[in-house]
Amino acid sequence: MDYIKLLVEDIHSVTMATINNEGKPITRIIDLMLYDKEGIYFLTARGKSFYQELMDQEYISLTGLKGKVSFSLSGKVKNIGSHKLDEIFLKNTYMQSIYPEDTRKALDVFCLYEASGEYFDISDPAHIKREPITINSKEHGTYYTITDRCIHCGKCETICLHCGACLEICPVQAIEFKGVKKRRKEDVCLMNMCMIEDDKGHVLVQNKVNDSYTGITFPGGHVEKEEIFKDAMIREVNEETGLTIKNPYLCGLYHWYKHSIHNIILVYKASEYEGVLHSSDKEDFLNQPLATGMEYVWDIVHKQHQECIMSNMGEHKRGDLF
Hints:
By secondary structure, the protein is of the alpha+beta class. 19% of the residues lie in helices and 43% in strands. The protein has helices at residues 3-11, 49-57, 85-91, 95-98, 155-159, 165-169, 229-241, 294-301; strands at 13-19, 25-31, 34-36, 39-45, 59-66, 69-79, 107-121, 129-135, 143-146, 175-178, 187-197, 203-204, 206-209, 214-217, 220-222, 243-246, 249-258, 261-270, 272-275, 307-313, 316-321. The strands form five sheets. Strands 1, 2, 3, 4, 5, 6, 7 and 8 form an eight-stranded antiparallel β-sheet that branches. The mean pLDDT is 88.
């Protein structure tokens, strides 16, 4: 069976998933326009957020459903510009009324050129069909396989629903789940913090009063996309204090996990600076509490340790130093 042809021509409209600018999954209904040996083709307008997500991530997941038959594919996409645009409009005539001639210049074509997934058919519950699908890929998605440890007892055949129940019923553990790889990538939020000390041993601190992070801390902030870490530290200090630091020294890392995001603070120290300090009204800083984890940051800037990872312990937080 030509699964790709069935997906494009019979199902045609699929749910396609990307990640939005908040790091959350988002789905859209997208029409699959063409296919050939190079892949599956679809299009979108350059002014849409979907376009930018495709350009940034170069990866999508899709699901197509019709009756009791479903398809799933995940893989790499690339922008091929206006290539195949005329062919798409000839093949899919309904698009001509959606995008008249003078509006098609806003469209770009994308190709799903390397992907893997599966075809799943439960039309006949007694004979469920599940087959791998690939597009220019050696990967075959996830599936169950019977190894040579099998003793041919037949127990797995009586319950096969492609759900993994066979793993539990096999008396000799002859069933293996293939195709699952440990995720090597993670979502990361990069930040920085700098202890600025003058020649008399005075240290510059801030009293943070926002909702997410409060208390006495050092100047710092977020690293912007494609920004050099050192440049980010210099920029943040200048924005928050008015000072321009020179030769900040990287002392270590302070990090933690929250909502599946790895938050990493690069901890710096600087003693060279120029400019006029933007000071707020005088406050009794000595009576203000330290921000969470600052005792560990203090340890890092004084070179006793180079790394601290924070862990939640119920209502309390614990730092492990390395």
